[in-house]
From TrEMBL:
Gene of this entry: nuoK1
Membrane-crossing segments per the record: 6-22, 29-52, 64-85
Family from the record: Belongs to the complex I subunit 4L family.
Superkingdom assignment: Bacteria
Lineage: Bacteria, Bacillati, Actinomycetota, Actinomycetes, Streptosporangiales
GO MF term list: NADH dehydrogenase (quinone) (non-electrogenic) activity; quinone binding
Function according to Swiss-Prot or TrEMBL: NDH-1 shuttles electrons from NADH, via FMN and iron-sulfur (Fe-S) centers, to quinones in the respiratory chain. The immediate electron acceptor for the enzyme in this species is believed to be a menaquinone. Couples the redox reaction to proton translocation (for every two electrons transferred, four hydrogen ions are translocated across the cytoplasmic membrane), and thus conserves the redox energy in a proton gradient.
Organism: Planobispora rosea
Compartments where found: Cell membrane; Membrane
Protein name according to UniProt: NADH-quinone oxidoreductase subunit K
Length: 152
């Protein structure tokens, strides 16, 4: 068997996968393109394992590891995509660039934040640890007690 033919097929698969990752905007299609790239790598591993006549079949063993990692990656990736869809109602990568939560309808985001407030969470004030002011509310909310008595 010539090693050139499967290597060309693998290069084509990998190129299609790279194009899919770079050109697609749908998250599911990007995940499918990553899987194409991993399958191209698997094809190369098996072909070169057979061509080099490895007694331990290291390429095939490594291919099994790549398949297991790919299965875990696709499971985790789909879980993240489902969580994003529940929160943002879209899987378009252009709309998922910002890390902040989308603002509710009718509320405009402003970049001018007043000192002592967190711009990501409207209506909350940051704690001033350096000022020594213990009356300033913290971003974590009111202090909670453990519920047990402290006897002195």
């Amino acid at each position: 068997m010539h090693v050139v033919y499967p290597a060309i097929v693998s290069a084509l698969l990998f190129s299609i996968g790279v194009y899919g990752v770079l050109a697609r905007r749908n998250t599911i299609l990007v995940l499918m393109s990553v899987e194409l790239m991993l399958n191209a790598v698997n094809l190369n591993l098996v072909v070169f394992d057979v061509w080099l006549r490895d007694r331990l079949h290291g390429g095939q063993v490594l291919t099994l590891f790549v398949i297991v990692i790919a299965a875990a990656e696709i499971g985790l990736g789909l879980a993240i995509v489902l969580a994003l869809y529940r929160n943002r109602q879209t899987v378009d990568l252009d709309h998922l660039r910002a890390l902040a939560e989308p603002s509710p309808p009718g509320v405009t985001a402003t970049s001018d934040a007043t000192p002592g407030t967190d711009p990501a969470i409207p209506g909350t004030a940051l704690a001033h640890a350096t000022s020594g002011d213990e009356t300033a509310p913290s971003a974590a909310g009111p202090e909670r007690t453990s519920g047990r008595r402290e006897d002195s």
